[in-house]
Design goal:
By secondary structure, this protein is an alpha/beta fold. The protein contains 11 helices and 6 strands. Helix 7 crosses helix 9.
C-alpha cells in the first residue's frame, strides 16, 4: 500500500512540474485575450509619449505584455507610498518595451517591484584591504536584484517616461539588468539568440567600452553617459537607455553598437520616427 501511495504522489508531483509551463502559457493567453482597460489606455497617453511613436502592431503587442506583466508581478509601495494603477501601467509599459518581438518570458526571475516616492538610500558594508569594515550610503533612483526584485523611484520613473529623447530612463536601465541577470550575475552579456552570436557581441561591446573609457580620460564629449564606463553590466544597461531614446545618434556615432542592440532587442527604433 505505501508503495502505491508513493507512486501516486510521484505521478502527481511530476504532472505538476511538467504541466506548469503549459498552464502558464494557457493562463497568459487568457490574460492577453482580455480587452485592454480604457483607464490604462488613458495612462499610456498621459504618461508615455513614446507609446504614440510606436507602430500600431507594436502598440498592440505592448498592451498585451502590460496585461500579463501586471497580472504576474507584485507592486509594493515603500516609505508610505500607496501603489496605484497609474504606477503599475507606467512601470509595466516601460519594462515591456524591452520584450517586444522577443520570446515572452516576462523576466522570469522577477517577482516584485518595490516603489519609493523618490530617490532612496541604500547602505552597503565595505571592507578595505586592512580588513576594516565601513558602511557606505548611496542615493539611488533604481536598483535591480538578482533575487527577484527591482526597486524604483516613482519620481525618477515619471521623469524618465516624460522625456523619451534624453537617453535617461531608470526603468529601461533596471530591466535591462534583469535581462542580463537571467542566467546569473549581470556581466553585460544577456542571453543571445545563438551561441555563435557571443563572439561578435563581445568584440563590439569591448571595443566600444574601451573607447568610452579612453574618451572620458581625454575629456572628450560623449553620447553615452559616463556611468556606463563603471563595468560591462552598467555599459549594457546604459546603452539600452540610449538605444531606445537616442537611436538616431547611437546609429550615427556607433553603428556597430546599434546593430548589435537592434539584433538583440529585435527592434529598429530608427523606423519609428
Amino acid at each position: 500500500m505505501p508503495l502505491v501511495i508513493l507512486l501516486i504522489l510521484t505521478i502527481l508531483i511530476s504532472g505538476f512540474i511538467f504541466g506548469q509551463p503549459y498552464y502558464q502559457r494557457w493562463q497568459r493567453q487568457r490574460i492577453r485575450a482580455r480587452p485592454f482597460p480604457e483607464p490604462w489606455r488613458q495612462i499610456l497617453k498621459k504618461r508615455l509619449p513614446y507609446y504614440r511613436a510606436l507602430p500600431t502592431d507594436l502598440q498592440l503587442q505592448l498592451k498585451k505584455h502590460i496585461q500579463v506583466f501586471i497580472a504576474e508581478k507584485d507592486f509594493i509601495g515603500c516609505a508610505g507610498l500607496i501603489v496605484t494603477d497609474e504606477m503599475r501601467v507606467t512601470i509595466a509599459a516601460q519594462a515591456c518595451l524591452l520584450l517586444l518581438n522577443r520570446p515572452n518570458h516576462y523576466f522570469p526571475q522577477l517577482r516584485s517591484i518595490l516603489i519609493y516616492p523618490a530617490a532612496f538610500i541604500v547602505a552597503n558594508a565595505q571592507q578595505d584591504a586592512a580588513g576594516l569594515v565601513s558602511e557606505q550610503r548611496r542615493i539611488l533612483s533604481g536598483e535591480s536584484w538578482q533575487q527577484g526584485r527591482v526597486i524604483l523611484s516613482w519620481q525618477d520613473t515619471l521623469a524618465g517616461a516624460a522625456n523619451p529623447k534624453d537617453g535617461h530612463n531608470v526603468v529601461i536601465h533596471e530591466f535591462a539588468h534583469q535581462l542580463d541577470q537571467e542566467h546569473g550575475n549581470a556581466q553585460g552579456a544577456p542571453l543571445l539568440q545563438r551561441s555563435s552570436d557571443y563572439q561578435q557581441w563581445s568584440q563590439v561591446m569591448q571595443q566600444a567600452f574601451d573607447q568610452l573609457r579612453w574618451q572620458l580620460q581625454q575629456g572628450q564629449p560623449v553620447l553615452i553617459d559616463p556611468y556606463a564606463a563603471t563595468n560591462p553590466a552598467e555599459f549594457f544597461a546604459v546603452l539600452s537607455e540610449v538605444f531606445f531614446e537616442q537611436s538616431d545618434e547611437l546609429a550615427k556615432q556607433h553603428p556597430a553598437l546599434y546593430q548589435q542592440l537592434s539584433y538583440f532587442y529585435r527592434l529598429d527604433p530608427l523606423s519609428w520616427h
